[in-house]
Design brief:
single chain; alpha/beta; eight-stranded parallel beta barrel; two-stranded antiparallel ribbon; 8 helices; 15 strands; about 30% helix; globular
């Protein structure tokens, strides 16, 4: 039985994620490029979510520590980035999530964030998982590209062992040879069977890691295809990296969805969700 996880308190009020709850949308730019861009995206996504009757959490990394090249843009860093996210949360009244990369970042991030996210590359890092769990905040663990869905039980056990039951699990594709990913849709019900809500990252799943030489490539044309499939299989949340002009994004532009395409896609996905209602949880 999949549990319902409550994200609370948030500036938008409690948000339930899981069986019977509205779809959770986690969306924003890959990296915090500026406070102005973050605000533009958050306001637009917040309005879309309100029109469609779904829950929304803004996402952006304050530090993208796993960029391909040393010269790649990483973001404003923890201190400035968390200040930007904190102001956004207060002024727009939107919940926020960002990645943490080191145990020492957990407590400072928990003072601002509604969800602490564990990057896919770090999903096996015990100290990081334990530090995130001990904050009491919801922990979103992204499944590593190198980890089977059933082995995510070990990550779940680490968080639970540190005293937290507030867990989300995110699928973002598995390594498929060099510079490529593939999504095994079986991973969604497998991870959901671990007892916690599952989120599908439709944008990182079409990434081509390192595929552009000094940066990652992507195939954003397949975002809707995989998202529709995941919704039919059964998910509790959808993760999207979005940008007004992905070709000009400072990080992960090739696998980001244009902001204007989010609402039409969500309408399709909610129609799929309604069509399979009662099958997944019934």
């Amino acid at each position: 039985m999949t549990a319902t996880v409550r994200i609370a308190p948030t500036p938008a009020g409690p948000i339930d994620v899981g069986p019977g709850a509205p779809l959770l949308l986690i969306a924003g730019p890959c990296v915090l490029e500026s406070a102005e861009l973050a605000r533009e995206i958050a306001l637009e996504m917040q309005a879309v979510a309100a029109r469609l009757g779904i829950s929304y959490v803004f996402k952006a990394s304050f530090d993208k520590a796993n960029r391909t090249s040393l010269a790649s843009f990483r973001g404003p860093g923890p201190e400035k980035g968390l200040r930007i996210l904190g102001r956004l949360r207060e002024e727009v009244r939107v919940p926020v999530v960002s990645d943490i990369h080191e145990p020492a970042q957990a407590e400072m991030a928990a003072d601002v964030l509604d969800i602490l996210q564990i990057p896919a590359f770090l999903c096996r890092q015990t100290d990081l998982l334990v530090a995130a769990a001990r904050t009491g905040k919801v922990v979103n663990i992204k499944k590593g590209q190198f980890v089977s869905p059933w082995d995510m039980a070990n990550a779940v056990d680490k968080v639970r062992g540190a005293g937290s039951e507030r867990i989300l699990l995110t699928e973002r594709g598995a390594s498929f040879g060099y510079n490529n990913l593939v999504v095994d849709m079986r991973s969604l019900p497998v991870m959901r069977s671990l007892g916690f809500p599952v989120v599908f990252d439709a944008t990182h799943s079409v990434q081509l890691p390192g595929g552009a030489g000094s940066s990652s490539g992507g195939q954003r044309e397949f975002i809707p295809v995989l998202a529709r499939a995941a919704m039919a299989v059964g998910i509790d949340g959808l993760f999207l990296e979005v940008h007004p002009d992905p070709d000009q994004a400072l990080c992960d532009g090739p696998n980001s969805l244009p902001l204007a395409e989010v609402e039409p896609l969500l309408k399709q996905l909610l129609a799929v969700r309604r069509a399979v209602a009662g099958v997944i949880d019934g």
